[in-house]
Amino acid sequence: MTILAHLSDLHLIERRHFRRGALDRSRLALLSVGTPLDAEARIAATKSALAEARRLGAEHVVLTGDLTEDGRDEQFEVLAEVLADSGIAAERITIVPGNHDGYSEPGTYARALAGPLASYRGTSAPGACTVLEDAIIKPISTMLEGQWIVRAGGLVRPDDVHSIRRLANDTVSRTRALVIAQHHPLGSPAWAGLEWFDGVENGRALHDLLLERTRLHVLHGHVHARATRNLCGREHAQVFCTASVRDQHQTLRLYKAEDCTLRELGAPTLQPVGSVNTSHTPLLAATPVFA
Ligand SMILES: [Fe+2]
Predict the structure, then answer these.
(1) Lower CB count within 10 Å: N or C terminus of the chain?
(2) Phi, psi at 136, each rounded to 5°
(3) Handedness of CA 254, 200, 140, 169 (dihedral sign)
(4) Buried/exposed code over 99-113 (b: 16+ C-beta within 10 A; e: otherwise)
(5) What span, in angstroms and rounded, lies between the C-alpha atoms of 3 and 251?
(6) What distance in angstroms lies between residue 48's CA and the mean position of ligand 1's atoms?
(7) If you average pLDDT over residues 129-138, what whole number do you get?
């Protein structure tokens, strides 16, 4: 059995955001509308969620995008600091970018992966994948670089669908749950006419692959709400979304991968930070291998 923790939508901001120019400050205010621009509160919420994942014995932590509010270099530096402070080894963390991580100039996320987030390249760079005892974590980016902040949509790239299919056909995934980590959901928004603003291009291709392969699962964020989807009346769910860490409620989901299937474990977010979870069962040590 392999235990995975799932966090999303941290929306971290730099501590000195008030020193930005007027235009940049306006962009940040617009993106954070309805949420205080409190860098320390967002950092604390992320640290708390990571500490909870660690305390509950997660063997691997998956962060499904919108790691930053508007994808600035300084915000990725904050993320690197928070992840390092968690005490969770870099090879046990997978990160993927969300639409907010692409709102700065093109290439910023790649620059962060080559710079402050370099420790996470092994699990999170394009083409990476982490093989655990009962799960394989495959990150894909659905981010569109440099897009307007009024557009929140994404793209499931055909090359990624091919590589997921190849991985699903590989002997390594025959005895494991294959877990795709991405920011966007597979479907388009419920409201007609919003596809351009918030749709996910080519999401159908991955959705069809999930219908084909019962071992395939998707962890995503973006909608800031907890959701679970079973496809075609299947007994086990294959698509899981978690709420936003920035919103500071119901932020952590825990899953166990076993017998090629991912299933949710309990409701750990109900545990107050700092308390001891006496119901927690000791876990096997993780033995990550990188393909
Ligand atoms: Fe978000």
Answers:
(1) C
(2) -120, 130
(3) positive
(4) bbbbbbeeebbeebb
(5) 16
(6) 18
(7) 98
Residue 279 above 50 pLDDT? no
Mean pLDDT for all residues in the chain = 88
Residue 131 buriedness (CB in 10 A; 0-12 / 13-18 / 19+): middle
Tokens representing residue 177 in the block: 């749950």
Residue 154 in contact with residue 101, Cβ under 8 Å? no
CA 160 / ligand 1 centre spacing (Å): 22
Distance, CA 224 to ligand 1 centroid (Å)? 6
Nearest to 23 by CA among 58, 70, 68: 70
**Sheet containing 2-7: order of strands:** 93-96, 60-64, 2-7, 253-258, 261-265
Q: Which domains does the chain have, with CATH numbers?
A: 2-273+283-290 (3.60.21.10)
The alpha carbon of 261 and the centre of ligand 1 are apart by a number of angstroms equal to 27
Question: Measured in angstroms, how far is the CA atom of residue 289 from the centroid of ligand 1?
Answer: 30
Give the per-residue pLDDT at 188: 66
